[in-house]
Amino acid sequence: MVAPDQDTPVPDHATEVHGVGLAYFICRWVLAPLVRMVYRPHLQGRENIPRTGPIILASNHLSLIDSFVIPMFAPRPVYFLAKSNYFEGTGISGWLSRQFFTALGATAVRRGAGQAALEALDQQKRILESGRAIALYPEGTRSLDGRLYKGRTGVAFLALETGAKVVPVGLTGTNEVMPVGAKWPRLTPRITIQYGEPIDVSAHGPASSGKARRLATDEIMAAIHALSGQELAGTYNEAPAATPVEKIRRAFPYERR
Question: Does residue 62 fall inside a structural domain?
């Protein structure tokens, strides 16, 4: 699950809303029990996830395995966005990767801003409108230093636009199981997954209001922080400005989706 990185379209086959496939049930009924036995994860608040209807699981993001941990232990299928290159490989390995991620309920998105970001929001909106659950990271990308960064307002836009409630998720320890750069997960650390009570952000106003989107996002991030206990970074999780123009642009308030 990634934040959208260049303004190029996603292939048509990857933008379709697929149902979960065999790989999902293998992960759910075979792999999940094995993970439980090895890692003995602490699971709290699973009863806070509605079993039907559109729902957004909004989580902090510490490790690559977060995108597998969240749907693996949720009480219902959870759909998520994955980098488009997982769907675009060639040969047998490319086919296997495409089939695996599609079967897990993933849809492809290109990383970046602009049109690519809008396409990602549109994909997630269509999934919610079909009555399904999605998982996303308001921070946009993984935290490399363990701190919790400011949330981008795409999560609030989706909630306000579709009427979906938001379940905050706090992950702890996934960055110790599989740190950034690691090829394989470690076996010893324990992880904690906490699902908070659903948040109805409709009181903040319509999706067309920038103020409503910002206030709703801040409420969601406060709930995530209460679960994860991370140090607050107080800024967005983004690479340093590469050009003088970008530095000037970031000096003025603007909405990060």
Answer: yes
